[in-house]
Amino acid sequence: MDTESSWFEARLRMVKEQIEQRGIRDPRVLQAMREVPRHLFVPEEEQPYAYEDCPLPIGFGQTISQPYMVAIMTALLELRGDEKVLEVGTGSGYQAAILSRIAREVHTIERHQALAQKAGERLQALGYTNVKVHVGDGSLGIPEEAPFQGIIVTAAAPKVPTPLLEQLSMNAYLVIPVGGPGGQELMRWQKTPAGFEPKELFPVAFVPLRGKEGWKEDQWYSR
Ligand code: SAM
Fold this sequence. Notes:
Layout: H1 3-19, H2 27-35, E1 56-59, E2 62-64, H3 67-76, E3 84-88, H4 94-100, E4 105-110, H5 113-125, E5 131-135, E6 151-153, H6 162-166, E7 173-180, E8 183-192, E9 195-204
Parallel strand pairs: 3-4, 3-6, 4-5, 6-7
Antiparallel strand pairs: 1-2, 7-8, 8-9
The structure holds S-adenosylmethionine.
């Protein structure tokens, strides 16, 4: 068996055992997770663990999220395929690549210039041409690209950033971990004609969202 086919086998196994068996049924999410080569989004020394059931370090004290977390957060957006979406916290670019298989247009924003540049080059090299990588404070969203028909935040916020709610289209969802080092909940907010409807889902553990609407260095010590 050549290397490509063993990566592919590992990916199929990951989807079956970690994603499907935990109840994710959206066929577009499952197909995207089968297609995107996660091992090409992690540092070389982490590649042997690329399809394990865990987050992995990607430099700058940051991580690529656990595959299941990527899958469930994507599924929670309930995308149909013609949406313009925003991801806050590009990291490796993996979550953006998954979104790009399902949505029409993906904007992703990262505060670390070096991570953003590497992710942008990687996404380009792999042919994910409907993803645009931005550098900046994603806690403020990207007002000039709004509205979005879905927003995912992949770092934990002290509270839901108002600018992100303001950049949602009618009926669209914002999926975001909220909380601090002592505990966080994954939340989904929907913009409805009657106002914003929040829903608390389950406990999670993410790195901090920084920036104007995020955690300050002295409130949560890490990079
Ligand atoms: N989604 C990423 C992936 O697929 O590899 C993993 C993201 S990692 C868990 C969280 C990322 O959020 C980090 O890369 C961090 O630098 C970034 N981040 C934190 N605060 C941010 C902010 N205010 N604006 C943009 N990015 C931010």
